[in-house]
Amino acid sequence: MAEIAESGGGGHGKGGKKRAKKQSTRVDMTPMVDLAFLLLTFFVLTSTFSKPKSMELSLPAEPPPGSPPPPEVKKGVTFLLTKDDRIFYYIGQFNAPGNEKGLPPTQLSETNFSSEGLHALLMKENKWANDEIDKLKAQNKAKTLADTTFKRLAVEATANNEAITVLIKTDDQATYKNAIDMLDELKICNVGKRVLGVEMMATEYALLQEKIK
User: Fold this and answer.
1) What's this model's pTM, rounded to 2 decimal places?
2) In 160-175, which positions are buried (b, 16+ CB within 10 angstroms) versus exposed (e)?
């Protein structure tokens, strides 16, 4: 509150003139401090703090010495990331030239980060899981499926044997940005089984080098 403090005075000066009283103003800052604390408390209680976002990844453990070879990849797509934002891939198990089973050697195909490229490929290969999730979404929208049940069944659908498994491998020229963009696209396309950090085989690397020459 503002107060006007009056000082002494009012006597007669020379010539019999009456001097005006001197006045000083003092501002009480206590109410303003209280208001500042009230506003601060209001904004703290009503503000929404940013929440950290995370993505679940499957990082393979180093196999112990003498362990048997890993099982064949079924319903799997392996992506090989390299320089210049280029993406190569193959579907299923990798077959090296002159393999013991006499199967045709694996050939790499190329795609890109466009909607007609990587997105369309993942939606096609992961069609079973996407169809199941669409059915669950319809039930959830019709209020015949609870939200918690919907989330649980959606996760189970992406982990089903009918859903695809995606392996992401990079060479020494790939960028972190490409790996993050790949993970984002896998999330959008409901790919639940994704593995990052697998070392590229020598035969895969040699085949990749032939493609990027």
Assistant:
1) 0.67
2) eeebbbbbbbbeeebe
